[in-house]
Every structure is written in C-alpha cells, then in structure tokens.
Amino acid sequence: KAGVTQTPRYLIKTRGQQVTLSCSPISGHRSVSWYQQTPGQGLQFLFEYFSETQRNKGNFPGRFSGRQFSNSRSEMNVSTLELGDSALYLCASSLEHSGLLHFGNGTRLTVT
Amino acid sequence: AQKITQTQPGMFVQEKEAVTLDCTYDTSDPSYGLFWYKQPSSGEMIFLIYQGSYDQQNATEGRYSLNFQKARKSANLVISASQLGDSAMYFCAMREAITGFQKLVFGTGTRLLVSP
Questions:
Q1: Do A56 and B109 touch (CB under 8 A)?
Q2: Taking Cα atoms as reference points, which of A51, A52, A34 lies closest to residue A43?
Q3: Peptide bond preceding B9: is omega within 30 degrees of 0, i.e. cis?
Q4: What are the tens digits of pLDDT across the range A58-110?
Q5: Which residues of B touch A101 (CB under 8 A)?
Q6: Contact at CB, A31 and B106, closer than 8 angstroms
Q7: Tens digit of pLDDT for each residue in B64-100?
Q8: What chain B residue is nearest to A105 in terms of C-alpha separation?
Q9: Distance between A70 CA and the closest CA of chain B, angstroms
Q10: What is the mean pLDDT of chain A?
Q11: Please, what is the Cα angle at B44 between B68 and B92, to 5 degrees?
C-alpha cells in the first residue's frame, strides 16, 4: 500500500507570492491533517479535514487555508508569503477512528 | 503551559546499548494518547509506538517500549539494542480526546546519535 504522498518535495518562492501544496493520503484514509515544522516553533498543527470539511484548525493566520477533495486528496494554500513561512510542511492521514497518523515526507518551502 | 516536554536536546549512545528518551506531559483530559515518532534527516515522521491513557500495560513494539507512568505524567521511550539507523530526531506527542483525533501536540524533540 502506498504511503502518504506530498508534492512537491521542495519549493522556493518569493515574499508576497502564494503557494499550493498537495497531499495524497493512504488509500482508504479519509482524514487528512497538516503540520508546519520550523526550527523556532517546532511542529505545529495547521488544520484537519474529513469528508471535505475542515473539522479542526490550529492557531494560524487566515493566509493559511486548505481544502479536501472527494477522493480525500488535500491541498493547502498559503497566500502573501512571508519569510517566516519557510518551513517543512507535513501532511498526515488516518482512518477515521484510529487516531494513528501516517505522515508523508513533507514539502520543504523556502521563502526568499 | 507546555503540554509536552522533552528535556534532552541531544543524546548519545553506543551501538547495541539501550537508551531512554524522556517525555513528560500535561493534560486535564482523562482520555488521551501518547505517541513517539522518529524523524530521520529525510523529514518523514515515522510512527514508533502508542500508549493510550487507559491502557493498563506499557506498550511495546519490537525494540521500542514505552515506560508509562501515569501518576508522574511521563511517557519515556526506551530503545533497546541501539542500531546506527536509529540516529534521528525523536518526538513525543499527545492527542487529547477533547481536541479531536488528528491534532497532535509535539514536544521539541531529542536528537539521538548512535555511535559504532
């Protein structure tokens, strides 16, 4: 069974631009969540989607948004990029009730 | 208040020895889960072991065991017979029932270096 797939692996963007990251969950997993990892703040929860609905959100500004499609694939978008948005963005999927998160390899975003 | 505390920024161990990575947590939710993940330099978070708050026995998964002391609110990871491939960052995380299934709160991590 294929794991969680995140694309692209690396991104370089300029301040003020926007970016979209993609996540394909493990087949059969309907829950997808996103985390941001930075050296200063560590790993922080961004949001969680289930059946195309956001059901949990972390403490991030509105520039961070996401969505989930009917096939459970998810995208997250960051608008008006700031230097502080440089981070490793990790996507995780799980079965509805297991609570066990399976993570992807992440997308490393660099904002210059 | 920090919910997950990992006080060891770095740990060194020789191959084949056992090592304990510390984790303490803070929650008022009686239903919670504790996780340990390994993050190699590639970035992927690899699940190692899980302990539920109502589990009576300490969790074990191969060379990994979790020393769960509920009254002390600690959930230390024990790696037996360390291998060179165990060199990585290790994160302790907690999920509280009240905040939902997928919201994990992570500690700051411990970097483990296994030497030959």
A1: no
A2: A34
A3: no
A4: 999 999 999 999 999 999 999 999 999 999 999 999 987 667 899 999 999 99
A5: 35, 45, 47, 102, 104
A6: no
A7: 999 999 999 999 999 999 999 999 999 999 998 777 6
A8: B44
A9: 19
A10: 94
A11: 20
Best A36, A101, A107 residue to mutate vs chain B (most B CBs within 10 Å):
A101
Per-residue tokens: B106: 């992570």
Q: Tens of pLDDT along A24-71?
A: 999 999 999 999 999 999 999 999 999 999 988 999 999 999 999 999
Q: Do B45 and A88 touch (CB under 8 A)?
A: no
